[in-house]
Request: fold
Amino acid sequence: MATTAVVPNPLREGMRMRKTPDPCAIVIFGASGDLTARKLVPALFSLDRGGMLPPTVAVIGCAKTPYSHEKFREAMAAAIHKYSPETVEDAAVTDFLRHFYYLTDNFSDVKAYKQLTDLLEKLDKEGVAQGNRLFYMATPPSQFPVIVSHLNSAGLAKPKDPGKTWTRIVVEKPFGRDLTSARQLNSAVLSVFSEDQVYRIDHYLGKETVQNLLVLRFANGIFEPIWNRRYIDHVEITVAEDIGIEGRGGYYEEAGLLRDMIQNHVMSVLSLVAMEPPASFEATQVRDEKAKVLRAIRPFDLDRLSEFAVRGQYLQGWVKGQSVPAYRAEPKVSPTSTTETYAALKFSVDNWRWAGVPFYVRSGKRLAKHISEIVIEFRRVPHMVFGKTWRDSVEPNIMSVRIQPNEGISVKFNAKFPATTMQIRPVKMEFRYADSFGVEAPGAYETLLLDCMLGDQTLFTREDAVEMAWELLTPLLERWQQDGAGGLAFYEAGTWGPAEADALLARDGRHWHRL
Ligand code: BG6
Reply:
């Protein structure tokens, strides 16, 4: 792995080789919320600038908050200026927003769908959307079933002209809050749409570095042969944030770290690290292999839970030189809350490839750094030829895949320190995206929105994977709920989490790698 820059502008070139999606209408339910302004519209704008959108795409915002078309366009223009990574000219933004519309209504009421249908028909007649429709559920999940059912009653769920036009639905997380609600949600959606119309978004799968895991594993001959229990000692996955709950106290009290981060993002990353090679990079095959991993994960032994799971909550502390409040002192959080803001878990994947290789995962808010990284620790050499003194002090080989920030991959190995005596020191080979390619990677939402429009489900979560992840985690959530404050470990904000998480690995003679 060298760090030399070689290919000019590979990401954009690669994307240009993709098909351009068909003209379509994107209908966003809950369009007055944060997600639309922060992520969806800036991502669409960026795709448009990159020439990746069809000549016409209409966006219809739907929500109760009263806006006119004009007001919505103004709000979206401000959002593009605020959240786009580059400076953009007003004229480009105005031109992009010319097919943006807004419908103020209560979409929990079937009557609201009349004006939506009329607008969609009008846009089809004008040739703007050409009958293709993407419904985006950016509302709280409690509203998904009712919206889906009204879309059905309004005759909007099926493709307008089957075989010629398409209709798809994007479902944002959380996909339920436990196994029962996830099943209910899936069955509500699937009673109206077929699975091939449903795109469950997990934005981690849209991150370049997460996709690169598959390229690292399956486009190189040198890693896959050692990617198993014979050579790998254990795997660590860390998704750490230094931010707190950012004013989302109400949501977070209901969710907690396990639901917010582990059930979706961390389990997706774990599946990609552990999956078998699919025969091709095609949706069904990739998703089959991911599902097999989830199926192979051993359920937690609730009688010995402390050997597998740690939950924590942050106390007052210091982050980037600023004093930050304890979780219990955050707005809309109960002063006696037992919601976890940190979790560390040990998973076992019971199959031939991974038997005996623990997967340790941890994630938390208000940790020491904002960093997501996968660490693969390889087994030590079976016999140390350099003498007994070196046996324990020579470090094992480590491969680190940095998901964010400073995206890249490094491999740590041992080298002889230049001296007349035998001295062994660890050194690193580094690949950094920024150095090697010199281009900005597309944002996760750009990749995923484009994939929805192109009808490529490879990076979206299938019904079975959602339910299997809940099946594993629901007993743990229920147990934590019963335990209340019992067993909740506290950590100071700005640290690496509770001491109990270190003890989880120390029990196995291991430690979390410094990131
Ligand atoms: C979201 C969670 O899904 O992911 C947030 O709801 C979290 O709580 C965010 O902050 C992290 O995403 P990223 O891309 O910043 O790592």
Notes: The longest strand covers residues 232-240. Residues 248 and 332 are 8 Å apart (CA to CA).
